[in-house]
Amino acid sequence: MFEALNKCLDRLESVAMVVFMSIATILTTIQVVYRYGFSGSLFWAEEVVIYSIICMSFVGASMGVRHGTHISVDVLNAIASPAVNRWLHLIAALIGIVFAGFMTYYGFVLYFNTLGRGQLTAALRLPMAWFYLPIGISGVLLILRYLWVINEVWKKPPVSLSEELVAESDKLI
Fold first, then answer.
1. Closest by CA position to 56, among listed 25, 104, 18
2. What is the separation of C-alpha 66 from the centre of its chain, rounded to a whole number of angstroms?
3. Three-class DSSP labels, the chain
4. Overall pTM > 0.85
5. Rg, the chain, Cα only
6. Cα–Cα dist 50/36, whole Å
7. What local confidence, expressed as pLDDT, does residue 5 receive?
8. 27-49 per-position pLDDT tens digit
9. Quick one: pLDDT at residue 159?
10. Which of 20, 86, 147, 152 qualifies as a cystine partner to 52, CB 3.0-4.6 A?
11. In the chain, which residues have pLDDT < 50?
């Protein structure tokens, strides 16, 4: 189940990142051309670029959990035994789930409260709530990714950095 869900999330996140990055890049390029080539600008382009970058950061958080690229302290992993290392990863994933749970809850609360007030964005005049929605969605994605991490750690315990170095040196010899 986790493998199929993981593939689907990978595809969804990759497409979302390409879309948001393309929007930000194309609009920034057009804005520069308009500003310096025609002495004008698109009044809404900056806002769209900012929201695209914000959405990229929320999608990127989930991708970071999947690929293990979030900032971490590796000193304990380097000196701990595989059994202790497994528990360190499990505890970190559980703390991540708690954080993502708060992020999901308060993200959707913010979305529904803003939707109820009818607040609009400054330039686009679109409902501001739609730009808060990625917070809650990102929390859900993070929870799914942390559950995947727990599943992977439980199936195959992580090895310490010292064991990885020994294995690498054995390959070289």
1. 18
2. 9
3. CHHHHHHHHHHHHHHHHHHHHHHHHHHHHHHHHHHHHHCCCCCCHHHHHHHHHHHHHHHHHHHHHHHCCCCCCCHHHHHCCHHHHHHHHHHHHHHHHHHHHHHHHHHHHHHHHHHHHCCECCCCCCECHHHHHHHHHHHHHHHHHHHHHHHHHHHCCCCCHHHHHHHHHHHHC
4. no
5. 21
6. 20
7. 87
8. 999 999 999 999 888 889 999 99
9. 61
10. 20
11. none
Look at residue 158 in the predicted model and tell me its pLDDT. 66
Query: What CA–CA distances, in Å, run from 6 to 1, 71, 92, 125?
Result: 8, 22, 20, 36
How confident is the model at residue 60, as a pLDDT? Answer: 93
* Amino acid symbol at 132: Y
Which among 139, 135, 164 is positioned nearest to 74, based on CA atoms?
164
**Best CA proximity match to 160, nearest among 78, 103, 42, 50:** 78
